[in-house]
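for the recovery benchmark. tokens below, seq after
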């Protein structure tokens, strides 16, 4: 008597693989790309040239959120609600001179990843707008104050060590060869 061992047929294998592809595609279709890959709050370095200016960080409605002296780093939400980008204003003051610099959220490039991965309805219309991940903030804001000449001070090049440069500004440094 012969015993036959049953081996899976190619058709059964293909059905199993097709089911995995459909399930995987469905899961990808329910994802929110920016919420997974990116974030909804960002560290923002607030600095001035020269350093040591006082600042007040305000929401767009004028409510003060934070005060301090430059350089400083604050963490800010990139959203002001469903489909609403955040808007902030930083008021810098140094030696009686005031400057106002806006911080506005812009669209996060990862938000469009929903188009590639099939998350159009859930990702683009629900999750990313609700979490705020569809928006991003710049990583730094700076105010430059004119320095008046005084005895013992020179204009032009200022030499400093790397530890005197705020972390958020270091990526803007250019090496001189």
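predicted aa per position
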């Amino acid at each position: 008597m012969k015993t036959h061992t049953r081996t899976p047929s190619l058709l059964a294998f293909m059905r199993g693989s097709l089911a995995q592809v459909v399930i995987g595609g469905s899961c990808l279709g329910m994802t929110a790309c920016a919420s997974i890959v990116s974030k909804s709050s960002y560290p923002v370095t607030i600095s001035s040239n020269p350093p040591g200016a006082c600042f007040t960080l305000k929401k767009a409605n004028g409510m003060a959120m934070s005060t301090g002296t430059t350089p400083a780093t604050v963490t800010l939400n990139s959203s002001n609600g469903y489909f609403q980008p955040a808007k902030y204003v930083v008021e810098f003051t140094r030696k009686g001179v005031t400057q106002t610099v806006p911080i506005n959220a812009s669209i996060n490039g990862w938000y469009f990843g929903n188009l590639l991965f099939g998350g159009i309805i859930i990702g683009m219309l629900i999750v990313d707008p609700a979490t705020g991940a569809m928006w991003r903030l710049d990583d730094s804001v700076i105010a430059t104050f004119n320095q008046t000449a005084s005895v013992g001070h020179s204009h032009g090049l200022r030499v400093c060590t790397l530890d005197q440069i705020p972390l958020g500004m270091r990526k803007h440094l250019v090496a001189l060869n």
